[in-house]
User: Fold this.
Amino acid sequence: MSASILNLHRQRGLQRQQAAVPLDPTAARDRTIRRGVNAAWGLLFLNTLTYVPGYSILNLPAHIGKAVAQVALPLALVVALAVNSKIRVRPNVFLCLVTLLSLGTMMTALQGTYGTMFRTFRLAEFVVALWLLTPWWGRRDMLILRCHLRWLYVSLGSVALGLLVSPGRAFAYDGRLTGAIWPMLPTQIAQYAAMACGLTVVLWLARLLSGRLTVVGVVLSIVLLLLTHTRTALVALVAGILVAGLSLFVSNKRVRRFFAAGAVTASIGVLTVAGVITTWLARGESASGLATLSGRTNFWGLVLALPRNRFQELFGFGLSNASVNGLPIDSNWLAAYMQEGLYGVVVCALILVYLLVAAFFQPPGVRRALALFIITYCLLASYTEDAFTNVSTYLLALVVAASLLVRSPEAASGAPAPPASAGPRNELLARD
Assistant:
């Protein structure tokens, strides 16, 4: 009996010694970098959140709520500098185009108001932070994608918590779901839910996520998306999954089964609940309301009718809250034309064209499929929503797509790729 107790103590002592062994310096540094990049990305994500007073149970004054989001940007820049202390950047066409967009706004900043100058400086600061994170683009573990997906689900989790805690406030916006913890608007929640759902589905199709984790993420996202009653996000989600799935259709048997099951489900749904689907899509609007996209097209003409000189036609009026007579423009292209002129419209178009061309020349696989989903979603949503003309989660999403379309540092150096079976199946959402 004493011998067995002695052996047990020896085993425990050996386990303590093994636990006390420090981590490999390379692994420890990589873990520190992953945590730093995730923190910087989370702060950039927080900076893109709008604050609308009156919908949150926290009931913060408007200036305090907006200050929280604005302070996150310089903090993100500090964290990015701490991670990238040697200030190394990875040259890429995408961020060069975004930088050109930022430089174009500086030409009108001095002629605008204090708000215009502040927004111009904010965009420049945001772009600098993005440049500092470029050394970790193209990693085989898709670090930038992991960070983005993680913060999408954190935001959706806060929305779900607000729905449970205060259902009245959660549906205070004309019966559509809003954020009761952080006051996010329905279109914003729908964007996060659709993006998270689509990325999760593509990862599952590529066998990088388990079915159980996928079901939890997709159910949460779809429920919140439907509660927002946002049609643009739903259409863009379906189109994005379709395009991403087609890019994997030939090489992936699971994708072919998924498309077959989806076609059968859609056929049954159209035959049985077509009336419910039509009612939900109509959202109680009349035919004229649907034709004018909930009234958006009624004042899009105001943007085009604004008197402007030749300089303003080329470079716009400067960054603003993208509204006319107090009404939001709700179109990436018209917002670009008003704020950044024809120059901004051309640069925004070049951003999407470049990403599509880069995706076309990317080898078939999960990275291209994920990028195609994001590009397709942003392209469709840009028609009826303010997207990537300024600091926004749409711009962050396109950064994720660009990071997926560059060669990994290991591949560029000729290092051998790890085996496909290496790592846990749910590694993409594992804690860093």
Summary: Residues 17-21, 412-425 have pLDDT under 50 and may be disordered. Residues 332-360 form the longest helix (29 residues).
